[in-house]
């Protein structure tokens, strides 16, 4: 079965007839979601064709058919994008695919480093392909976790969310945040089909974390964009922060993630306190840090 077939089947399984305006037939249904026959009727295609797509027995599916299936399933923009990318991805054994080894990320632009370090009142990170953490400012490390404890190949935001107890414990709504992280990662995987680093990350997290296995099997996708997260920090307690993800021009695949608080709110006061605390300085041991002047020690605080 192909990724397209698996994703289409998962979307069909979680879409009820009532959600798409179909009458609910009396009696017991073997599946809670749409039957293949029902999806075929809604999309205006043959049921045998839907079956062959789900079973991976169709070489190329036309954009018109994909659009009809997406419309029938009431897919959102992110889900539509993923469906189209799955259809465009090479099949197993295809010629395309990323080479083995850790992905070679473009260097961080000096201007982006300066921008990152200048955001003293907001927690900011630069992410690369697959949500690898390429750079961050002091406040991001104070808010989330000490990224310098990990080698560069393990500084992945999704990986640390699941495997770093310090970071995982700071998310007040773990069930929501964890599921969103998995949806972000699947979206990233769809944008870079065949990427061996993403495949290794999925394999590692599937082996080591039951939550990840459960959410990965649900085939949810979501682009990393904007939203809010609630944190519970050992120094300041609970704070609610908005976040925004922006592409960095001139560096394909690099994004800037900024966490900030509503002005004059308790969360803003808490974030300002953390910014002052982070400003005392953490020894700079990693090449992912933006250049800055000398800072004092943090008085033994970890």
UniProtKB/TrEMBL annotation:
<dbReference type="InterPro" id="IPR010982">
    <property type="entry name" value="Lambda_DNA-bd_dom_sf"/>
</dbReference>
<dbReference type="InterPro" id="IPR001387">
    <property type="entry name" value="Cro/C1-type_HTH"/>
</dbReference>
<dbReference type="Pfam" id="PF17765">
    <property type="entry name" value="MLTR_LBD"/>
</dbReference>
<feature type="compositionally biased region" description="Basic and acidic residues">
    <location>
        <begin position="285"/>
        <end position="302"/>
    </location>
</feature>
<feature type="region of interest" description="Disordered">
    <location>
        <begin position="279"/>
        <end position="302"/>
    </location>
</feature>
<protein>
    <submittedName>
        <fullName>Helix-turn-helix domain-containing protein</fullName>
    </submittedName>
</protein>
<dbReference type="Pfam" id="PF13560">
    <property type="entry name" value="HTH_31"/>
</dbReference>
<feature type="domain" description="HTH cro/C1-type">
    <location>
        <begin position="33"/>
        <end position="80"/>
    </location>
</feature>
<dbReference type="InterPro" id="IPR041413">
    <property type="entry name" value="MLTR_LBD"/>
</dbReference>
<dbReference type="GO" id="GO:0003677">
    <property type="term" value="F:DNA binding"/>
</dbReference>
């Amino acid at each position: 079965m192909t990724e397209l077939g698996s994703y289409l089947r998962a979307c069909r399984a979680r879409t009820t007839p009532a959600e798409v305006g179909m009458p609910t037939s009396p009696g017991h249904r073997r599946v809670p979601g749409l039957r293949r026959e029902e999806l075929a009727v809604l999309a205006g295609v043959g049921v045998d064709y839907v079956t062959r797509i789900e079973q991976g027995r169709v070489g190329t599916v036309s954009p018109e058919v994909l659009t009809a299936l997406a419309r029938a399933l009431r897919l959102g923009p992110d889900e539509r994008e993923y469906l189209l990318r799955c259809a465009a991805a090479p099949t197993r054994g295809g010629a395309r695919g990323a080479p083995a080894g850790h992905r070679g990320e473009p260097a961080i632009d000096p201007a982006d480093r300066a921008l990152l370090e200048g955001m003293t009142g907001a927690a900011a990170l630069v992410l690369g392909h697959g949500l690898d953490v390429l750079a961050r400012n002091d406040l991001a490390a104070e808010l989330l976790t000490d990224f310098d404890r990990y080698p560069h190949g393990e500084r992945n935001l999704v990986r640390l969310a699941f495997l770093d107890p310090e970071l995982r414990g700071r998310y007040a709504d773990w069930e929501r945040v964890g599921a969103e992280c998995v949806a972000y990662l699947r979206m990233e995987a769809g944008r870079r089909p065949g990427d061996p680093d993403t495949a290794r990350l999925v394999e590692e997290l599937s082996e080591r974390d039951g939550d990840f296995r459960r959410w990965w099997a649900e085939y949810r996708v979501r682009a990393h964009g904007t939203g809010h997260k609630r944190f519970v920090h050992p120094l300041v307690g609970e704070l609610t922060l908005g976040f925004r993800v922006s592409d960095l021009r001139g560096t394909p695949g690099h994004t800037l993630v900024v966490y900030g608080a509503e002005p004059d709110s308790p969360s803003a006061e808490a974030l300002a306190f953390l910014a002052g605390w982070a400003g005392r300085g953490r020894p700079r041991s990693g090449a992912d840090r933006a250049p800055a002047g000398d800072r004092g020690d943090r008085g033994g605080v970890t």
